[in-house]
Each structure stands twice: as structure tokens, then as C-alpha cells.
């Protein structure tokens, strides 16, 4: 999982999707593939943040649940990313 050189990977648009992950995590790599595909299809921006660089509070809260996906700042999925649910959330389906 590339870190964009600055600890975050960003698409052109303002990020609506944030993935909080860990370096070397195969579930994070799989989640990022889904996020990239959905972001490319929908035009939604995304960013990748790493728990190693996160606050103590985020590490304590999310360490056992990575990858964690947020949509518009709200927790959305843990461990795996459902492409269907992610698309619905971005479309305003609230799922």
C-alpha cells in the first residue's frame, strides 16, 4: 500500500472516503482496491491514513478493526469494504 510519500494518498477531489489502515496489512490492500475503484467510478475523493501516524485515541479505538473506512467523516465499514455499501453511502443511500 503506497503512502504517497506524505503518509496519505489523495485523489484530486476533496476526500469523501478515508481509509485508516496499517502498513503491511493485506486487508487494507484489498480495501484500498475497492476504494480506488469506487472513487474512480464516482469521482469521490479519498485519502489513506495509517494508524502508525494516528493519535493515541485513534490507535486505541481502531487498531483491532482495521481497515476502517469513513464516508464524510463517519465510520462506515470495518475489516472489509463492501463495494455495494460504499457506493450506496456515496449516493446518499445511507446504507
Automatic annotation (TrEMBL):
Gene3D superfamilies, A to Z: Glutaredoxin
Cited InterPro entries: Glutaredoxin-like, Thioredoxin-like_sf
Pfam families, A to Z: Glrx-like
Name used for this protein in its record: Glutaredoxin
